[in-house]
Amino acid sequence: MKNKLSLQDVQRVSTEVLSDVHNFCIAHNINYSLAYGTLIGAIRHKGFIPWDDDIDIIMLRPDYERFCKEYKSHNCKLITAKDSYINYARVCDCIKTKYQTISPWTTDKTVGVWIDIFPLDAVEDDFTLFSNRISRFKVLLDRQVNSRMALLNYTSYKNPKDLFTLWRLKQKYSNTNLNTLKNEIESIVNEIPFGSTKHVSQLVCRGNSNKEFFTLDMFLSFSKTKFENYEFLIANGWEDILKLNFGDYMQLPPKDQQVPHGGFVDFFWKK
User: Fold this and answer.
1) CA–CA distance, 15 with 197 (Å, rounded to integer)
2) In the predicted model, what is the mean pLDDT of residues 231-243?
3) 3-state DSSP call for residue 248?
4) Pseudo-torsion of CA 50, 258, 119, 247, nearest 10°?
5) Residue 47, number of CB atoms within 10 A of its CB
6) How confident is the model at residue 147, as a pLDDT?
7) In which region does residue 242 sit, left (phi positive, over 0), alpha (psi from -120 to 50) or beta (all else)?
8) Could you give the angle at which helices 178-189 and 127-149 cross, rounded to 10 degrees?
9) What ranges make up the beta strands (E) of 61-152?
10) Which tens digit of pLDDT belongs to each residue from 84-110?
11) SS3 assignment, position 44
12) Cα–Cα distance between 31 and 59 in angstroms, integer?
């Protein structure tokens, strides 16, 4: 399709967005760490996993709140929970690109390629209690994603199977108040004051799991590591973080799994 970004274009623009975020964080003494596939890419490939199409970073909740309050940029736009249907933040290119998605997350149509910023929140030190908390969040986050999908128009799909799926979602979730649901998720996040326990986890995005049972001392310090032609921050406990999430993180997945996340969003050049 005309003006559609290639995988390499998305990688390049998202890295530029991350560079903008990094420079702001360094200037304002805010810590963050590359996370998930982005962290694997930095360690294993010194840049993107070749087929990866997004960037994820994590921040301890106090740093996250400061960032969301203070971040300013001429080239990028911060979208937080108050401006969206999700409980985490995205920093988006607002100069070069625009997006088209089948998973609505904001009503702001001025933004393009983004990076995800996930807060790490306090959780129980008891693993069983923590696992129960994750199970509560999974129910709410599944409902949140399905309710976002129910916002779509039928013209978003042409495949009869997809149209039937959308019809079912609308029947079940059309009456869901996304702001009420978002606030419900936030209230559960706030049940445990940050710093009152020794463990933290990512709670607010579907795909979280009880593998992410991190200790605070994994985030005592941060150092720079190479990523493409830049250097970005990683937490001192990066190896333990990757082992908890992925096991043998240096092992490449099977060929049939070496594909972009894709599917729910396309990006286009504005000009």
Assistant:
1) 34
2) 97
3) coil
4) -110
5) 17
6) 72
7) alpha
8) 170
9) 76-79, 89-93, 97-101, 114-123
10) 888 899 999 999 999 887 667 777 778
11) helix
12) 7
- SS3 assignment, position 104: coil
Q: Is 76 left (phi over 0), alpha (psi -120 to 50) or beta?
A: beta
- What letter represents residue 174's amino acid? S
Q: 261 with 103: CB under 8 angstroms? A: no
The answer to whether the CB of 49 falls within 8 A of the CB of 110 is no
Q: Amino acid letter at 126?
A: D
Q: Kindly report, residue by residue over 75-84, the tens digit of the pLDDT.
A: 999 999 888 8
The band of 1, judged by pLDDT with boundaries at 50, 70 and 90, is: low
- Does residue 137 contact residue 38 with C-beta atoms inside 8 Å? no
Beta bridge mates, 56: 116
**Through-space distance between the first and last CA atoms of the chain, rounded to whole angstroms:** 14
Give which of 96, 145, 103, 102 is closest to 268, Cα–Cα. Answer: 96
Instruction: Please count the helices (runs of H) and the strands (runs of E) in the chain.
Output: 7, 11
- CA 53 – CA 66 distance, rounded (Å): 27
- Compute the distance between CA of residue 241 and CA of residue 174 in angstroms, rounded to an integer: 38
Report residue 84 as tokens. Answer: 């969206």
The candidate with the shortest Cα–Cα distance to 267, out of 90, 53, 10, 12, is 10
Provide the CA 33 distance to its chain's centre, in angstroms: 13
DSSP state, 256?
G
Structure confidence by residue, pLDDT tens digits, 145-158: 777 766 666 566 66
Element (H, E) at 200: strand 199-201
